[in-house]
What we know:
The chain is of the alpha/beta class. Helix content is 32%, strand content 15%. Strands 1, 2, 3, 4, 5, 6, 7, 8 and 9 form a 9-stranded mixed β-sheet that branches. α7 crosses α9 (307-322) and α9 (307-322) runs antiparallel to α10 (328-346).
Amino acid sequence: MAAPVSVSPTPLLKDELDIVIPTIRNLDFLEMWRPFFQPYHLIIVQDGDPSKTIKVPDGFDYELYNRNDINRILGPKASCISFKDSACRCFGYMVSKKKYIYTIDDDCFVANDPAGKPINALEQHIKNLLSPSTPFFFNTLYDPFREGADFVRGYPFSLREGVPTAASHGLWLNIPDYDAPTQLVKPLERNTRYVDMVLTIPKGTLFPMCGMNLAFHRDLIGPAMYFGLMGDGQPIGRYDDMWAGWCSKVICDHLGLGIKTGLPYIFHSKASNPFVNLRKEYKGIFWQEEIIPFFQNVLIPKECTTVQKCYLELSKQVKEKLSKVDPYFDKLADAMVTWIEAWDELNPPAGAAKPNGKA
C-alpha cells in the first residue's frame, strides 16, 4: 500500500465528474486519497442504519444520502435500490448531474506502481474514458491510443478511429476479487502482479465487472449501470456489479460503444469473509450458468437506439427467459423497469418538462 501522497496533480474533468462511494463506516480512507480526490465532488451513499452518523474528513466537497433520503427522493420507486448491500451505490449514479462517474469501495487505497510511485487511479480512468475503444478488431499491442503504442500492421484503417469509451474497469493489487469457493481454497493468495496494460474488451465478449474500481461515461451508459436487487430481502448478493457489467456490455455492443479493462490498479486492503460470501453467492453460483448464456444470446432490436430503450428490452427478455430459473428474476425485471422510470424522472431529457411542470 502506498504512503500518503504530498503532491497534488492538476485535476482532469474537475467539474464534470462525481466520485460515488457506498459505505457503512467513517470514511477515514479518504485521507490517503485526498491529493487525488479533494478537487472533486463526492456522492456518498450510506448503507444500513440511517440513524448512524457517518464522518467524512474535513475539506471534501460531498453530498451524503442515507436510506431515508433515498425513500424521500424516490418514493415508491425506492424499492429498486438495494438495502444492506454495496449495490446501493447506483443511487449515486442516478442523482449525479455530471458527465462521468468514478466509484470506489471504502476498503480500497492508493497502490504503488513497480517503481514505487503512487498511482493516481482516477487520472488513469479519465484517460481511458477520453480515448477511443476498439471493440471490433483486436490490436495485439492492446490500447493503440496509449503513449508509445499504435495500431499494428494488418489492422484495418477503416476501424482505427475507434468508438467512444463508455466504461473503464480498473483492477486491484493485494486482495483479489475472488468468489467464495476460490477464497476458501486460496485464503492466503494475494495479487502482486502489476500488468502495465489497457485493452478493449472485444464485441460479443462478456466479462465479470467489479464495482470497487470503476469509472464510466454517465451520459453514454449511465442508465444501464443498475446494480440490481441484492442484499436485504433478496436471495442473492455479490452479483450486483456483475449484473450491471453484463447488461452494460451487451448494450454497448448493440450501440457501438467500448469498454476498457486493465490499468489503473488500487490496493484492496480487506478480504471479506468467505463463509458469509458463500451464503450470499450460493444461488448465484448456480444461476450464473443460465444467466451468462442468456446474455451471450441476447438480441436487441435495431429500433432500440437509446440506453433506456435497450435496458427496457433487456428487462422484458429477463422476465421471459430467466423467470424459469427462479421467481427472483420476475422481481428483478420489474425493478429494472422501475430503475429506468426513476432515472428518467430525475434526469429528464434537455427541454423536457420537469416533475414540477417547469421546463
